[in-house]
Amino acid sequence: MAALASVDDYKARYGEPADSARTEVLLQDASDLMLAAFEDRIGEYTEGACPAFDRAAPAVCCLLVNRVLSAPAAMAGATQYSQGAGGYTASVTYGSALGEMYLGKSDLRRLGLTGQALGALTPLERGGVTE
User: Fold this and answer.
1) pLDDT band at 83 (very low <50, low <70, confident <90, very high)
2) Which of 6, 58, 72, 108 is a Cys-bridge partner for 113, taking CB atoms 3.0 to 4.6 Å apart?
3) Phi and psi for 104 in degrees, rounded to 5?
């Protein structure tokens, strides 16, 4: 399946990426992650089945990729960094320190994949009906 967002979508939101080929691969990875969450919550993805997902998918896909691309290579492993000299201090903390791609609660909410769900199986689906 094609990615839920294109490199042009990413450019419109965050500017020109340093490596378009890498960005394209990451957009596909983000799409796969989002579709896995959709399938886990709702079932097989078909366009139009969940309008909230379809509307938010390009923006969330680009956001996931931007989190990965925003972590500087020199500090890719940093979860926290502090430095001080005299009366000055500097501090760095990354939410996606290792370049890990993840869907947070706000991302899932934006995609319409939160809230309670109720499921039921008929006796036939449970195997409770014999002939």
Assistant:
1) confident
2) 108
3) -85, 175
Reading the block at residue 66, the tokens are 């931007």
What is this structure's pTM?
0.72
Which amino acid, one-letter code, is at 8?
Answer: D
pLDDT, tens digit (0-9, with 9 covering 90-100), for 5-51: 999 999 999 999 999 999 999 999 999 999 999 999 888 999 988 89
What separation in angstroms does the CA of 113 have from each of 38, 56, 91, 102?
7, 11, 34, 14
Residue 91: phi, psi to the nearest 5?
A: -145, 140
Would you state the pLDDT for residue 117? 67
Nearest to 73 by CA among 90, 56, 92, 97: 97
Find the helix packing angle between 7-14 and 51-70, rounded to 10°. 70
Among 111, 95, 106, 89, which Cα is nearest to 36's? 111
Contacts of residue 35, Cβ cutoff 8 Å, sequence gap at least 6? 1, 4, 45
Chain centroid offset of residue 20 CA: 18
d(CA 13, CA 99) in angstroms, rounded, equals 19
